[in-house]
Design goal:
The structure is a homodimer of 278-residue chains.
Chain A (H helix, E strand, L loop, with lengths): L1 H10 L7 E2 L4 H9 L5 E2 L3 H5 L4 E4 L6 H8 L8 E4 L5 H11 L6 E7 L19 E5 L6 H13 L3 E4 L2 H27 L4 H6 L3 H7 L6 H10 L1 H24 L2 H18 L7
Parallel strand pairs in A: 1-2, 3-4, 4-5, 6-7
Antiparallel strand pairs in A: 5-6
């Protein structure tokens, strides 16, 4: 997603030059080749030197080390922001690592996804009509906040401000839990002796449902661990719902099942124009 | 899906005339208007009179009544087939209702889906490259089987023959369980006081994951009830997997979580070229 941020800022003329850094040198080289960044730095400290905006696009578990690696080289007045899917942990790491510069750290989470990743998946329009959650702290400078929000708006995004803990509970419900369910279902099938045969009968519904299970396990290990308290709560509530369904199936409780299916179908149809035959 | 069968047969010149019937008169009128059927019959018995092929495209729970309604009017030698998502129950109903004509009943399940339903969603190419499961009984005539399979192949489908019970266990795993999970998640969120706010933060991953929850609750009530034994087994296995994940989150069992996520991601990536950034 870092590549898409670079592409979006560049396309809108919001930056004069972009320096990129990735632990994978191949990714750096490709980003330069594609013109997404003007140059690749050999390390995070070198990448932030001279920058007035630093965008951290790393798995959330890598943030503490990354923040420590850049703090000494940050320009006075440089804005720092991130794209992490969890916010309480990233803000705690930033508060811890950045010292007074934490006032210019603006935690952000663009709720955007893409089927492609890496520099070749960069999409300058990825943030058009997407929601970017901004979780400010007491210490966050109003000026830093306004400038980062303006950048996102320039890329076509809507801003939603909320507390970090509120963000994490919300996302546990509508993002982290669905990912865990998709990973769990695929892992479950993969562990069975006839997995290949079963998967060969997977239809379009299965493909839609499990698409998010193809997501990066590295990134998602970090997310589920970082947000395990809120995620665990959502997970246990869902387990209780599934146990209720199991009992209703066994008891032939048609009325309850019907109400549950109707509520779900009506609710899902309400969130957009999607319809599905089967 | 009945409309897509009509469109597919017509497009390939496999039929001289098509008579349609639906309980909803508006659907009948629209199917005639679109030229999907040549005429609409006032009832199921009238619809099958003179037909050499009868395609039953109704929710599986409606099959027993429907079969009883048509049996007296079936032409000698008429083939009967269905499109139901469960097979043991439909075959039992057909065996029960059709008497000797059961030899010409060929149970079929095209594993195809579409985001659109009804006559306006008819797609003559829906079955291109799709798998059609055929579950024959001991009594099924070899000639009837060959003719129905040839029709599906003409529409671009691959045939997979298996036992009805085997089909139902397989589909419980790769279709019915994912649908139940998607319905359950959406019903769970819908039942919470801040449902609208939560849904307003749903990203593309949530939309993909829950698309199947917009499916017809009528059709899915029938499916989950018809296949409740096999579905219940899959559901309880998945609940055990989710409980294992919950324990791993609580215990911080990083290694197990990592292996589970990697297995799921690798497996999901293997079934097609899909990739997803987050």
């Amino acid at each position: 997603m870092g590549a898409s941020v670079a592409a979006a800022l560049r396309r809108r003329g919001l930056t004069s030059s972009i320096v990129g850094y990735d632990r994978d040198r191949g990714v750096c080289a490709r980003a330069v080749e594609l013109g997404l960044v003007d140059e690749a730095a050999p390390g995070p400290a070198q990448a932030v030197r001279g920058a007035d905006l630093v965008v951290l696009a790393a798995p959330v578990g890598a943030m503490p080390e990354l923040l420590k690696a850049i703090v000494a080289q940050l320009e006075p007045g440089a804005l720092v922001t991130d794209l992490g899917s969890t916010k309480s942990d990233v803000m705690a790491a930033a508060r811890d690592a950045l010292g007074p510069a934490f006032a210019r750290f603006v935690a952000a989470h663009p709720i955007a996804g893409s089927e492609r990743s890496g520099p070749d998946g960069a999409d300058p329009d990825l943030f058009e009509d997407c929601t970017v959650v901004i979780t400010a702290a007491r210490e966050t400078s109003a000026g830093a906040l306004a400038r980062v929000e303006a950048l996102w708006r320039s890329c076509g995004a809507r801003i939603a401000r909320m507390e970090a803990g509120d963000h994490d509970r919300l996302l546990a419900s509508v993002s982290h839990l669905p990912h865990v369910l998709a990973f769990a279902l695929v892992a479950q099938i993969a562990g069975e002796p006839d997995a290949q045969r079963k998967l060969s009968f997977a239809g379009p519904g299965f493909r839609d449902f499990t698409r998010i299970a193809a997501s990066s396990p590295v990134m998602w290990l970090d997310i589920v661990l970082a947000n395990r308290a809120a995620l665990g709560q959502e997970l246990r509530a869902l387990i209780a719902m599934l146990q209720r369904i199991d009992r209703a199936l066994e008891a032939g409780d048609v009325r309850w099942l019907q109400q549950m299916l109707e509520l779900a179908s009506r609710t899902r149809r309400s969130i957009d124009g999607d319809r599905h035959e089967q």
